[in-house]
Design goal:
mainly alpha, Four Helix Bundle (Hemerythrin (Met), subunit A), 7 helices, disordered N terminus
């Protein structure tokens, strides 16, 4: 399946506004994460913090550009929890979302109180893992026109099981990429404390992967 439901050139003005809103929300979200980290750290000069957020922002911006060109409707669909979202996924969202900020807060406190520090030589491996995870996530979002944030059957959009792209190799490549991306955070930031926090975050993705069925990302 091509993964393209409509072309961006013919987008309705309301859809364009929705996409713009989602882009702004993404920028604000990452900015708030960065502020939480640097205020927790008490030091805005921490280079490995800038490395991680630079990677994160670059990945997000690149993914948005790709989705605008290949799967434009999805930008409007993602970021909204629909009424028919599976009940278990609504619970996971309540657990999962705060962890984005808990992880960076723990990393910031690690900087402030010098709890731990991984060697800088490991940062290259963290970057490589982040990039690989980002490519898998991007591939999944391009191949799957139903790549929404939550688990639901999108009857109004003719939802069907995707068997092309990465889906021919793994059941939920989006979640798999997310788990690997979580694993890269402690290596990028260099903090052992996040080795404990990130698996909890990735674990909620694994639960959604397990219970989400064939229609999940």
């Amino acid at each position: 399946m091509s993964g393209t439901l409509s072309q961006s050139g013919g987008a309705h003005p309301s859809l364009r506004r929705t996409r713009a809103k989602q882009v702004i929300q993404g920028i604000v979200f990452i900015s708030v994460q960065a502020l939480v980290f640097f205020f927790s750290a008490g030091d805005f000069r921490w280079l490995r913090g800038w490395l991680y957020f630079g990677l994160y922002l670059t990945f997000t911006a690149t993914l948005v550009v790709v989705m605008f060109r290949v799967n434009p409707e999805l930008i409007g669909e993602r970021g909204r929890v629909k009424s028919d979202t599976k009940g278990f996924d609504k619970v996971f969202i309540m657990i999962y979302a705060p962890m984005y900020f808990i992880i960076v807060a723990v990393a910031g406190l690690d900087v402030r109180y010098h709890w731990s520090l991984m060697p800088l030589s490991l940062a290259g491996g963290g970057v490589a893992l982040f990039v690989a995870a980002g490519l898998l996530l991007a591939w999944a979002s391009v191949a799957n026109p139903f790549f929404e944030t939550t688990v639901r059957i999108q009857k109004e959009r003719g939802h069907c099981v995707i068997a092309s792209g990465p889906y021919q190799y793994v059941r939920h490549p989006g979640y798999l990429g997310g788990v690997f991306m979580e694993m890269s955070i402690p290596i990028d930031s260099g903090f052992v404390g996040d080795v404990c926090a990130c698996p909890l975050h990735g674990g909620t993705l694994h639960c959604t992967y397990t219970f989400g069925g064939p229609h999940a990302a």
